[in-house]
Amino acid sequence: MPKDQPVLDLSPHVSDEVRKTTCYMCACRCGINVHMKEGKVAYIEGNKDHPVNKGVLCAKGSAGIMQVNAPSRLKAPLKRVGPRGSGEFEEISWEEALTIATDWLAPIRAENPEKLAFFTGRDQSQSFTSFWAQHFGTPNYAAHGGFCSVNMAAAGIYTMGGAFWEFGQPDWDYTKLFMLFGVAEDHDSNPIKMGIGKIKERGAKIIGVNPIRSGYNAVADEWVGITPGTDGLFILALVHELMKAGKIDLEYLAQYTNAPVLVDAETGLLMRDEAGKELVIDRNTGKLTPFDQQGVRPDLSATHRHAGITHKPVFHLMAERYMSEEYAPEAVAERCGISAERIRGIANEIARVAFEESFELDQEWTDFRGETHSKMTGRPVSFHSMRGISAHSNGFQTCRSLHVLQILLGTVEVPGGFRFKPPYPKPATIHPKPHYGVTPGKPLDGPHLGFVHGPDDLALKPDGTAARIDKAFTWENPMSAHGMMHMVISNAHAGDPYKIDTLFMYMANMAWNSSMNTRGVIDMLTDKNEETGEYVIPRIIYSDAYSSEMVAYADLILPDTTYLERHDCISLLDRPICEADAAADAIRWPVIEPDRDVRGFQSVLCELGARLDLPGFINEDGTQKYADYADYITNHIRKPGIGPLAGWRMGENGLQNGRGDANEAQLDAYIENGGFFVEHIPEGANYYKPWNMAYQEWAVGMGIIDKPEPYLFQLYVEPMRKFQRAAEGHGERQPPEHLRERVKTTMDPLPIWYEPFEDSAVDVDEYPVHALTQRPMAMYHSWGSQNAWLRQIHGRNPLYLPTNLMQKHGLKDEDWATVSSVHGEITVPVMEMAALNANTVWTWNAIGKRKGAWALEEDAPEVTKGFLLNHLIHELMPPKGDGLRWANSDPITGQAAWFDLRVKIAKATTPPSESQPAMPPIKSPVGTGPSELKWKTKP
């Protein structure tokens, strides 16, 4: 050893104790080891035993230590004492805060529960918050999904019983071709990165379809820089080529989908027997028969003639539509920005891998018709997609198109393809329908959200007006399974369909990055009635852990804890952490105690529910039923034998999993196991889940379903046809005249493509450029950019322009450009990016902050060089001159059409000193944080 070599401690003392819990720095919900010194968090690493991340942890997860020490954390309950938006509050006790909330909410519940609008943001306890809202009795509840990715989720469930992300995953072990469509980089990032690494190691090919080549697309073997909003057209061109070449799995389609089900030629509805079962022609007998009978071999080609009318199977209708030259590569190439030759090349590659590289597993299984198969056939092509194709006004049908493409190839729930994660698959018919029956002083008549199956299920009052403040489940957006959070404030301000009294929100930064039309929403929150001087939205209660922009616009603040200071439940009833081969759920628990006067929001709801005498939150003697959220997690029974957590429940002979009674030591068992529970699917039950009776029986035992529920994939979605028929004049419930044509056009039971609504609502010659946002891997919604470590990765967000637009406008890096839409204008710094669709600009989402928020300095880069595209977007479409308010949403689900935005660009003649618009600072209840954060635990 050299004489001057320093002596290094290669095994330093890292911690006194390791506490295992679940990360909350993004939606992956990875397992983490929290190293403690002197009762403080010293270090966070991945938990190698955890089923989600297997020890892998990203920058966000490690930076959780800065989140729990952030200067922006709220410190105590707050009551507004100045005007809304002033940020002037006084600290009050929890007793006073809960008394105020009770005094505001109790009269609403007693007289008219719909006057409460209770909407939650990116929390992970929606099963619980919806339970609270249901027992309050308001129909006005939903979470963030309506402005996030409901198109993907709803399209998947209506089509095949599940979708991407939390619903399923690629078969990383066997897939040989993996295609991504519009995947946000913060979603499921650790599992995707691990999966991509695994398949690259095997030499599998990755194709990324995205206008922007960053993140996952940057490591793809082939990048397809598609024009925004045209993914559905591109996918249907692939379908055209595959059908034309006969490269589809006919046996799979016949056995497991409604492709052979006959369509009534007069009504367009599926033909059924008296029991409601779909009818097919049996190849063995040539006769009409229910699809599920033992020994039936459904015929894809046979027709049925009766009373002079010929009824065709779904497959015939698909062939007639998609083999049309309308979907030929030459017909779509210019629109998609992809050459016809390249479209054909991708279709050929998909077909080659799916059929020439197919394989078999020696695994016996029995299907729902009682037939035993000796093999499982693998088709090693898999897909993954998220918000990029979902957040368009044609997103539902685009997502449906992608699911149909998978099904035609026979790649869903087979080795090498896409696989469902428990508790999925679940067909739409298993899920609840939306409920809206309001009775003063009583709970709502059922769950708020669900899946409609025709006009009779719409949430309409007797006079035909919307029962919900967001207008979900109406003729404007019939299949809005996640609600429409982005429309709540706008509708409440307009009194359309009615006025509300109190807006109650949790973790929803609607005064900034979570709103389309940010400036307009701020004006709505502060607007007063000219005659009375009262706020148009009379009361606003808000809960958050941090001093976000929304805090300044609330009247009462209920401060939440950070994720390491509270109990959380990642439940099979909600958004679990399952993998394709296992059911899994998890908890968070207070690995540290708060050093402020804050409480976990869910625990606050337990007490508030008791104060309001909500059934479900009080005992028979009127006392509080659940002391806190931990008590609820442990003792709540949603239905016999089913609670929030599936692990370590009580059975007749001791502990058991899935179904069982409450176990007072359940949370301790989870903590001892690392914060999670996992139950593996038996071998032979882990593929073909919708039709595999071994899986169906296992799922019943786990409490996922109550009885075996095999079903057919719905290439043809009959509920959509029912809405079409109503628009054609059939039935008692019909759409209003101004929506009749839109319903007929957009609600086609077979996937279609239509241009995004903004393209036809604005002059695309004046606004020729598409504008998008993406979430970076290092950030998660808005709260990442207060994190001292993560700010060093993304402290600002330029607008990225392709080379051709930089040259056209005479721009170079760090120049300023003015970007305009029909709604607004921003002036921002720009950067050149070659790997970008030639007619698209983009920026990172939620980096830009308002001065005074998040305890940031007034000259922080996030507030001087950061910005939001939200200022250019509106929750409503440009007026049509008909006096109606048309939501900027998908007409089927109501998902916010964030990515339809059209803009024009010009070089700023006089570069500003900071990004525009620059709003006045908000006064923060926590003040400005120190310029440096320093602390040290003992060595």
UniProtKB/TrEMBL annotation:
Cofactor: [4Fe-4S] cluster
Pfam families: Molybdop_Fe4S4, Molybdopterin
Keywords per UniProt: 4Fe-4S, Iron, Iron-sulfur, Metal-binding, Oxidoreductase
Region of interest: Disordered: 909-939
Top-rank taxon, per record: Bacteria
Compartments in which it is found: Cell envelope
GO molecular function: 4 iron, 4 sulfur cluster binding; metal ion binding; oxidoreductase activity
SMART domains, alphabetized: Molybdop_Fe4S4
EC numbers on record: 1.8.-.-
Chief place where the protein resides: other
Domain (4Fe-4S Mo/W bis-MGD-type): residue spans on this chain: 16-72
Family membership: Belongs to the prokaryotic molybdopterin-containing oxidoreductase family.
PANTHER family hit by this protein: DMSO REDUCTASE CHAIN A, TUNGSTEN-CONTAINING FORMYLMETHANOFURAN DEHYDROGENASE 2 SUBUNIT B
Protein name: Tetrathionate reductase subunit A
Gene behind the chain: ttrA
